[in-house]
Amino acid sequence: MDRIRIALGNRVQFDPLVPRYNIAPSQPVLTVVSTAHLHELTWGLIPSWSKERKAIINARAETLDDRASFKDSFEHRRCLILADGFYEWRRIGKARQAFYFQMEDEHAFAFAGIWDRWKHGEVKIKSCAIVTTDANELLAPVHDRMPVILREESYERWLDPKVSPTELKKLLEPYSSEEMKSHPVSSQVNFADAEGRELIERVDVEVGTTPSLF
Q1: Domains recognised in the chain with CATH numbers
Q2: Alpha-carbon separation of residue 110 from 73, 100, 155 (angstroms)
Q3: Local structure of residue 177 (DSSP, 8 states)
Q4: Once rounded to an integer, what is the mean pLDDT over residues 122-138?
Q5: What is the pLDDT of residues 32-82, one digit of tens each?
Q6: How far is CA 145 from CA 47, 110, 125, in A?
Q7: β-pairing verdict for 149-150 and 38-43
Q8: H helices within 8-89, ranges in order?
Q9: Is the separation of the CB atoms in 4 and 12 below 8 Å?
Q10: What letters, b where the CB count within 10 A reaches 16 and e where it falls short, cover 133-152?
Q11: pLDDT band at 17 (very low <50, low <70, confident <90, very high)
Q12: Angstrom distance (rounded) from CA 169 to CA 185
C-alpha cells in the first residue's frame, strides 16, 4: 500500500494489514474517503433514502450522474477502494471459470468507489460500490465490464470535493491492458468462506459455478 500512501502525499497511515484473498459482497473492504482517512466500508451500496436493506455492489460509470441510487454519492461521497487483485468469471457452457486479474508489477491499486450512510432504527451501515466501465482487451474475453482502476495521479482528483462531475467522468476509463495480467484460478473462490493465498495461485483451466461480480 506504500504507493497509494505516497500518491496521497503520505497523509494516510496504514496499520499492519491482514491479507484477504476472497472478499465477497456484504463484507468489509478497505477504503480511503474524501478526508483521506482509512475506513472499512461494507461492500454493497445502500442509498441513504432506501427503505430496504438492498445493496448494489457495482455502479456503472455511464449512469453515475443520473441514477438516483448513485447521483448524490457520486457528487459528494467518493472513495478509493484498495486492492491488489480481483476475480472475474468466464462462461464455459453452463459453467464458469474463475480468473485472477492484477497489475503487471503486482502492486496495490485503487478502484473508483462511491459510498453512503444508511440507517434503519438502531442499524447503521456505511457502504460502498465499485464503479465499473467497459472491459479492456485483457478482460474482454472473460467479461464485458471491469472495475474502474484509477491511476495514481488521479487519486487526489477523485477525492477532491471541488472537482465537477463532468471532469470526474473523464477518469472513468478502462485501465490499460498492457499494464495488467491474469491467470485462471481455483473454483474455490466461488465460496465466500474460502480464504488463503492458494486462491490466487495459477491452476489449469477448470470449471467454476459462481455468478459474475462485474
Answers
A1: 2-85+106-177 (3.90.1680.10)
A2: 18, 16, 8
A3: G
A4: 97
A5: 997 667 889 999 999 999 999 999 999 999 999 999 999 999 999 999 999
A6: 23, 17, 27
A7: unpaired
A8: 68-76
A9: yes
A10: bebbebbeebbebbbbbbbe
A11: confident
A12: 33
Structure-block grid coordinates of residue 13:
497511515
- Taking the C-alpha atoms of residue 117 and residue 73, their distance in angstroms, rounded to an integer, is 10
Q: Is 110 exposed, middle or buried (0-12, 13-18, 19+ CB in 10 A)?
A: buried
Q: Is residue 197 packed enough to be buried (19+ CB in 10 Å), middle (13-18) or exposed (0-12)?
A: exposed
Query: Distance between CA atoms of 112 and 186, rounded to whole angstroms?
Result: 27
User: From CA 114, how far away is CA 48, in angstroms rounded?
Assistant: 13
Q: What is the tens place of the pLDDT at every residue in 150-169?
A: 999 999 999 999 999 999 99
Of 48, 42, 44, nearest to 71 by C-alpha is 48
